Amino acid sequence: MTTKRLHPRVRVVWVLRAVLAAAVLTAPVAGGFYFGYLPGWAPLVVGAILLALGVVHALLRYRRWSYEIREDALYLDRGVITQVRTTVPLVRIQHVDSRRGPVERGVGLASCVVYTAGSRGADVRIPGLTPDGASDLREELKRLAIRADGEDAV
Amino acid sequence: MKLAPQSIPYRALQKVAGVVVVLFFVVNDSEWGFPAAAGATGAVLLVAGAYEVAYYRRFEYELTEDTLDIRSGVISRREREIPYRRIQNVDVSRSVIQRAIGVAAVDLETAGGSSTEGSIRFVTPEEATRLQREVQRRKSAGSAADDGDAAGEDRGPVEEELFAISPRELALVGALSFDGRLIGLLAFAGSGSVPVVSGYLPDVSTLALSAVAVAAVGALFLVSWGIGAAVSFSNYYGFRLARAGDELRYERGLFRRYSGSIPTEKVQTLTVSDNPAKRALGYATLSIETAGYAPGQGGEYGSEAAIPIARSGRVYELAREIESFGDPSFRRPPRRIRWRYAFRYALLLAVLVGVAFAVDWYVAADIPWYAPAALLLAVPPAAHLKWKHRGYWLGEDHLVTRNGFWSRSVRIVPYYRIQNVIDSRSVFQRRWSVATVVADTAGTSSLTGSDAAAVDFDVEEAVDLQSELAGRLQEALRDRRSEVGSFEWFEGDGETDGEGDADAEAPDESPDIPDEGVVRSDFSASTRDYSEPAERVDTGGYAVDRFPSDADVAHRPDGEESSTDAVDDDGDGIDGGDDADGGSAEVGGDAAEDAADDSDGSGEAETDESQER
Fold it and tell me: Which UniProt keywords apply (chain A) (predicted)?
């Protein structure tokens, strides 16, 4: 089975998110400038650095992200700073959602969330899918989970 | 069944006591004086009492065939049915006052949700115990054989004591527990006040200042220790753990008595933990974790159903009795990783020295800020110890991990409890090309991030471990399934949501034709399982279920030979491919494994196909 990648447009969502985060984090610095505690270049520099970091992180994140549906498990590989590889046995899937947030709807994407009874990796989100892809993936995971026939998870 | 009547005044007072007292004093001080105050508090009490009477009248619980039904609610009404099989723990607690008036609170935990699912406040202690026993009896009756009722009844009361805390051990628990919360609180409150305080003490000599500081810290530790000792003494007073059939029961508490039951089949993780003091004395702690919420006192501690302290030999013996995991021999991380720990500790020391220097500079005191550097000598042994106490071991049915050299914990996770496996590598770990593999379970303490983890193993080993764990989970599931299947074959009743029923009965009954001479499918309540994948699932245009899969080809003829009933039992009568599980339950044993393999194979093939689309 092939390793699948996310839709390239997911970068838009992540970059937007990075912009938003940068804006929020820069706000106090801008406030400092407004009240005269800090020189004028401070918010600009901080904002630029945060934005650059956020954008680079978003792009790297896209490069890292991949997922794969194997014979009996869903396998995800992601994470820039801490690389995380998760194996979700299909038997353990409790339920599957496909969902579309406002930004995702804006760029015509959707994501799929897989829930297990575990506590740490209780919900695994696969972003960057086309709306059809997300519902197909949901159906496929559902089908595979049913086929895998888990006994009581807990 | 109703609550205990004395719960009405108790509940009313419990809810409004605080309000009433405040109200009384506030109104009493106002211009209207005592009569108004008495009137107001009386009115509040009356309203509360009326509400509680209504609550009492509405609240009803009932033990039915396979669920516990609770009807409650005065304003918004709720009816809840909790299947016995889904109940994780049943806990009973009684505070001092509750004991005095003879009531007890019963909490039933299931794995769903974050709060207690069934909370019965309050019943008499006898009723509480009866509920506890009855739930267990019905649960085991449900999952065991037909004659399970009688057997359950016989076996129910037989309690075999596993552990009872001795006064010596209780004293040890007290002595060894240290409540860090006070220190944390003071440190938090104090962190902001250092500059303020220093402003008031400009002239005091350094010596006096450090003397006071040392004395204060000493007193703080003593007080913390005292609090910790008192808390754990009252918590674990009279602790005992017993085994009754397939259930563990515990009891503890000095002021507030707790008792609870933990079904052994619901145990997620066992943790044996110790620290240097306990190790030196040869003691350890065992905690038992289920997916229900923490028994006893909310989520703070994770599982409270723990053996607070016992000889480590005894602890392992008990742990093996609950989960027979054998004798672990741990695999350690690569030796080079000790450098990583050494660097880490050195870095920590550098930060410490830096902070000390900053304080010294800020307060303008002449304290020896470089003193922490002396700890540098301790770094190599610490790094070595940390490495030495890490490890994992793959047992026959269990993953055992060990971590931490100060507070060391050994976690025992049965493979079939693994929910997912996570391999993570931080930036720093990547530099050493090592990884951490976490086996996530549904247990509660993993919420606090203390999952079973194999930390800092070689990348290749981590990858192997991850796939090995996933593989062993599949294997364990397969084993359990065939076990359940063959079990049902003979006993005719299943714990798999009745899914086995139809399949298991079929071969048994079909050969002999019923009295009226008509073979009909069994439409009794439990035979139709709606979770069975037999229904057409909308696969969104995938071709998968349109064609019968290998699994079906393998078992269908067999099923038809052995029973005329089997086809009907399937109910749907459609080509299947849907029926991999029914198939395995039906044929049992080796054939089940084949079928499962086949279905896996076919699943793979189909996914391939679907991906090509």
Answer: Membrane, Transmembrane, Transmembrane helix
Q: What percent of chain B has pLDDT over 70?
A: 67
What's chain A's average pLDDT?
Answer: 87
Confidence of residue B318 (pLDDT cuts 50, 70, 90): confident
Angle at alpha carbon of residue B405, lines to B404 and B410, rounded to 5°: 50
Task: Tell me the chain A residues in contact with residue B581 when contact means C-beta distances shorter than 8 Å.
Answer: 149
Q: pLDDT-based confidence at B194, cuts 50/70/90?
A: low
pLDDT digits (tens, 9 = 90+) for B444-477: 554 555 778 899 999 999 999 999 999 999 888 8
- A114: tokens are 């897989």
SS (H, E, C) B505-547: HHHHHCCCCCCCCCCCCCCCCCCCCCCCCCCCCCCCCCCHHHC
DSSP A52-75: HHHHHHHHHHHHH-EEEE-SSEEE
Minimal Cα–Cα distance from B221 to chain A, Å? 34
Cα dist from B70 to A94, B110, B121, B270, whole Å: 26, 14, 12, 32
Query: What is the distance between the alpha carbons of residues B325 and B322, in angstroms, rounded to a whole number?
Result: 9
Q: Is the predicted pLDDT of residue B29 greater than 90, yes or no?
A: no
Give the type of residue at B88.
Q
**Per-residue 3-state assignment (H helix, E strand, C coil) for B52-117:** HHHHHHHCEEEECCCEEEEEECCCCCEEEEEEHHHEEEEEEEECHHHHHHCCEEEEEEECCCCCCC
* Angle, CA of A58, A61 and A63, to the nearest 5°: 115
3-state secondary structure B539-590: CCCCCHHHCCCHHHHHHHHHHHHHCCHHHHHHCCCCCCCCCHHHHHHHHCHH
Nearest-by-Cβ selection for A147 from B421, B441, B580: B580
Min Cα distance A13 → chain B (Å) is: 24
- A119/B446 touch (CB, cutoff 8 Å), yes or no: yes
Check residue A57 and give its pLDDT: 94
Q: Which residues from A are below 8 Å from B266, CB to CB? A: 154
- Of the candidates B88, B120, B90, the one whose C-alpha atom is nearest the C-alpha of residue B104 is B120
* Gap from B495 CA to chain A (nearest CA, Å): 10
Assess B539–A contact: CB distance below 8 Å, yes or no. yes
Whether A121 sits inside 8 A of B419 (CB atoms) is: yes
Buried b (16+ CB within 10 A) or exposed e, B534-560: beebebeebebbeebbbbbebbbebbe
Mean pLDDT (chain B) is 74
| Cis previous bond, B122, omega within 30 | yes
Distance from C-alpha of A128 to C-alpha of A145, rounded to nearest angstrom:
22
Residues B279, B527: Cα–Cα separation, whole Å: 54
Q: Closest residue of A to B479, CA-based?
A: A151
pLDDT band at B84 (very low <50, low <70, confident <90, very high): confident
Q: Does the pLDDT of residue B94 top 60, yes or no?
A: yes
Q: Do B542 and A89 touch (CB under 8 A)?
A: no
- A125-153 pLDDT, tens digit each: 899 899 998 988 998 888 888 887 655 55
Q: Select the residue from B440, B465, B472 to test the A interface by mutation, using most A Cβ atoms within 10 A.
A: B440
* B566-585 pLDDT, tens digit each: 344 444 444 444 444 444 44
Please, which residues have CB within 8 angstroms of residue B376's CB and are 6 or more apart in sequence? B346, B349
Measured between beta carbons, the chain B residues lying within 8 angstroms of A87 are 420-423, 466-467, 469-470
